[in-house]
Design brief:
The structure is a homodimer of 349-residue chains. Helix content of chain A is 71%, strand content 1%. The first copy, chain A, is an all-alpha fold. Chain A has a two-stranded antiparallel sheet. In chain A, helix 11 (219-246) runs parallel beside helix 18.
Chain lengths: 349, 349
């Protein structure tokens, strides 16, 4: 066994910089095990990888990549990947760190392209790359980060390459599907789930799967942890949706109401419409909402039952995510995976 | 040895559809060996790969990809890759076909993103995907094709993955560098060459290198064929630049004068400016040229010496590309590589 990274020392714990967000924002840790600290050493190596990978002869590519990568980010996808590796006794740290890096690079690349697609002005508490640097260099930087992810993931065997490529394909398909249901009243809960599975949960699921696979877990266990990742990702997105209605700009690092503004069918919006809130239905279909209209609609959603219902759905998927954990070999990493589910559902940022 | 694919049969030769362009347009084949027909069987497998790879649950991704892939394209990059494999006696056709597919997918992905960056309306004789389908699906389809390329290339060993990733990185860096010198009078011939090496020649070079490497060529031969690919790519781009000034819209499948319109520092533009053509210098710096101004400037460039000079430069790089060929083991594939140099320099489309 490795030394217990999560043993409490008497000194102030040296949280890596990317953890301070969670700690500062005071999320309660119900379980004894902080999932971040379980893999803090490996996450630090991921950070180093990320920084090394974005070096380029063209300074602007490095600058735009760094703008986003150094701008925070919860690093939850790499964390899931690392924990899924550790929980099955994985030893070759360098390998899993490389895959965790690839997963985060893919996520970052899609953020850059998403900001272009959404015309987003704010990301991670500051001007979006798109707003700051313009379309051309931002688009190219997204490609650049995809390529860097390929560099990290391409070293692995055909299974890992295929799973990673499939996750990326799902991301693009989820993006298209979301576009199809943009301001589209025909969207169902099934459609919503399909979008979320592809656009968000797929990368969580794939990171978890690859972590277990590279640790040498049995195919049955790989499937269990894939279920964990999938359902954790779904719960995660549902809370993202909630926070876009009732969250705080300062904690989120971006304005709320973006889903309404962009016409994205978030779960609270769909549920409010199905609950008969005509104001929400009208706002959802409108492509020229003023800020005042957005704020009024958010308030209306918050006053109805859609937020509570969405939180309940999120808890149900969190419950689904927790089930497979019980079947895993007991370890502190298993407890870390469990705490992570709580953290994700209870977060306010 | 394989059966001679290029033996003339008495019947009308069954050119694959992607070859008819060259034949129809009447490019003279000075050498006896048609490089297309040397690897026609493998190119057909590349076509099948391309078509299979663009299937998606989201129809629009397939439609946009097919719009470009079925819209023609000279398939010169896959051809170079295949010939470089065959010339060294490579046998595992499935492998080289997969890499040739990856190279063409990368090229196609960059075309989709380039059309967004340039606001291009026409590509390969029809509306560009960007014009026809809009920014969002076109951007996502570019990502989709990059991912499919990764699927094909990611199966290979670390060397192939690294070379492919490096080529892609060079593409993005070349794009940035070209943006930096957009309408920028400081651009030098050295800058031009650097842009072309990264943005165009790198993918030719990498395809050639990987072809030789996978065929088991010695490192010295891999370097020779890399030189071939690099210089062929440079000569190719220079002729592209020429055709953008004096080419025919119908043969090119796109309007001419795009470099002027977009402020791209093409070699004829740079040479005309250095030759003292003030009208060209003014047009190059202007971001609001009318069609008439573009046509008048093209005419001015055509009347000066810039086109002849660019063709001479192209011939010099073609000469550089031809040199390493002489050192290769003699074969019909070697003659195919040689003819390809001529074809590229003498083409009018």
């Amino acid at each position: 066994m490795e030394p217990l990274l999560f043993q409490q020392s008497k000194k102030k714990p040296a949280y890596p910089s990317f953890l301070t967000g969670f700690v500062r924002k005071g999320v309660p840790f119900r379980g004894a095990i902080d999932p971040f600290r379980c893999v803090a050493k490996e996450l630090e190596l991921v950070e180093q990888n990320l920084l090394r990978s974005i070096r380029s002869t063209e300074h602007i590519l490095t600058e735009i990549s760094a703008h986003l990568i150094l701008g925070g980010g919860k690093r939850i996808r790499p964390m899931v990947t690392l924990l899924a590796f550790k929980v099955f006794g994985g030893q070759k740290t360098a390998d899993i760190v490389d895959i965790a890096t690839a997963i985060e690079l893919i996520h970052t690349a899609t953020l850059l392209h998403d900001d272009i697609l959404d015309g987003a002005e704010i990301r991670r508490g500051k001007e979006s790359a798109y707003k700051k640097f313009g379309l051309k260099p931002t688009l190219i930087s997204g490609d650049f980060l995809f390529i860097k992810a390929f560099e990290f993931a391409g070293k692995f065997d055909a299974t890992v390459v295929q799973w990673t490529a499939d996750a990326c394909t799902h991301l693009t398909e989820g993006e298209i599907l979301q576009g199809f249901f943009n301001r589209n009243m025909n969207v169902t809960l099934e459609d919503y789930l399909e979008i979320v599975k592809r656009k968000t949960a797929s990368l969580f699921q794939t990171g978890a799967k690859i972590g277990a696979y590279l640790a040498g877990a049995s195919p049955a266990f790989v499937e269990e942890i894939a279920e964990y990742g999938l359902n954790l990702g779904i719960a995660f997105q549902m809370i993202d949706d909630v926070l876009d209605v009732v969250g705080h700009k300062e904690l989120l690092g971006k304005p709320i109401g973006m889903d309404l503004r962009d016409g994205n069918p978030s779960l609270p919006i769909i549920l409010a419409i199905r609950g008969g809130q005509r104001q929400v239905a009208e706002a959802f279909q409108s492509d020229h909402l003023t800020n005042e209209m957005i704020q009024a609609t958010l308030k209306a959603i918050g006053q109805g039952s859609a937020i509570d219902k969405t939180k309940n759905y999120s808890r149900s998927y969190a419950e689904l995510a927790s089930k497979p954990i019980k079947k895993l070999p007991p370890s502190l990493y298993r407890d870390g995976l469990k705490t992570l589910v709580q953290l994700i559902v209870e977060r306010n940022f």
